[in-house]
Amino acid sequence: MNNDDSDSGLKDELDLRALSAYVDGELPEEQRAAIETQLRQHPQATARVAAWRAQKAALRALCGAPDSDARQAQAGQRADDRQQTAEAGERSYAGSQPTEAEEPAFIVVRRTRPWWQRAGLAACWLAAGAGLALALGPLAPRLTGGAWSGFGGQPAGFAQRADVAYAVYSPERRHPVEVAASEEEHLITWLSKRLNRPLSVPSLQEYGYSLVGGRLLPGEAGPAAQFMYENQAGARLTLYVTGVTRDETAFRLFRDGNRRTFYWISDGMGYALSGAIAEGKLREIAIDVCSALGGKPETWQQ
Fold first, then answer.
1. In the chain, which ranges are continuous DSSP H helix?
2. What is the DSSP letter of 94?
3. Staple 263 to which of 123, 159, 196, 224, CB 3.0 to 4.6 Å?
4. Is the alpha carbon torsion for 156, 157, 160, 162 positive or negative?
5. Which band of pLDDT confidence, cut at 50, 70 and 90, is reported for residue 108?
6. What are the backbone dihedrals phi and psi of residue 234, each rounded to the nearest 5 degrees, phi first?
7. What residues contact residue 261 under an 8 Å CB cut-off, 6+ apart?
8. Res. 97: pLDDT tops 60
9. pLDDT (tens digit, 9 = 90+) per residue, 20-62?
10. What are phi and psi of 241, to 5 degrees?
11. Alpha carbons 198 and 191: distance in angstroms, whole number
């Protein structure tokens, strides 16, 4: 197993070599039971063992190596075959001196396909996969609940982060934000400085939503800001803002359960409006937010 990662978080009494042998199934029963007892008391070591097992499984899958159970079964089968061969030899040559059964004295060599045949087969599979993706692309939103927007339309990372941030902080009642709306000027100045970009907070009063406040969050490649809004019924929306390296004008939708996130990119900034309200209503609000932030929603309005 790979021990290159830091071991500073493990207790001194835990022997990495013993843990590695435990993962590889090389410990006797008594020592294995002792290791399992220790693991129940050390969550970090348990996580390390799980990571090693995942690494081992990945290597087996990559290299096409059989797992330990299969190897043991194969070894047992070979032993049985050798024993049967030896017994048959004893019966056929009763007068001869018995000898230890050896491996078969012949080797089966399978002819390797020429490289051009292998390359052609790989190209056929690649073409088939691309054709299948194109064929199923239009059906993907129905099959996945709309979480995927089709071939080449995997949700942007910042949109998924915005959805998760909404799911985490929108139910919070005591500490939904770091800086309250009562300090809106300070909130905007602080987040603008952290994102190294002048920010503004669009008003959603027209839709019955008031600003609750905002917070700083980690983004994909830097900091991100989350602004939270709430209506009189307690429903909440969040606007997620972060810097992005790519640029596009598409207006996309990401779904997860009852949550919806409309997201877009404008002038090097990614924006995502998330909420658990009617999709059409959230889209209407997102269009106005995009316009208020200097975007051009007319390029993707239908």
1. 16-23, 29-41, 43-63, 68-92, 115-136, 140-143, 157-169, 184-195, 279-292
2. T
3. 159
4. negative
5. very low
6. 95, 0
7. 159, 162, 163, 166, 253, 254, 255, 272, 273, 274
8. no
9. 888 888 889 888 888 888 888 887 788 788 777 777 766 665 5
10. -130, 130
11. 8
> How far apart are alpha carbons 194 and 131 in whole angstroms?
45
Which residue's entry shows tokens 């809106």?
A: 184
Can you list the domains of the chain with their CATH numbers?
1-93 (no CATH), 157-299 (3.30.200.100)
Angstrom CA distances, 161 to 144, 156, 168, 187, 273, stand at 19, 9, 10, 21, 11
Q: Which of 48-62, 180-194, 245-259 has the lowest mean pLDDT?
A: 48-62
Q: Return the half-sphere exposure (C-beta side, CA atoms, 13 A cut-off) of residue 184.
A: 12
CA distances to 87, 88, 266 from 92, rounded to whole Å, are 9, 6, 86
Distance CA 240, CA 273 (A): 6
pLDDT at 12: 55
Tokens at 113, concatenated: 């396909």
Least confident of 114-123, 162-171, 195-204, 285-294: 114-123
| CA 203 vs CA 99, 120, 286: distances in Å | 92, 59, 12
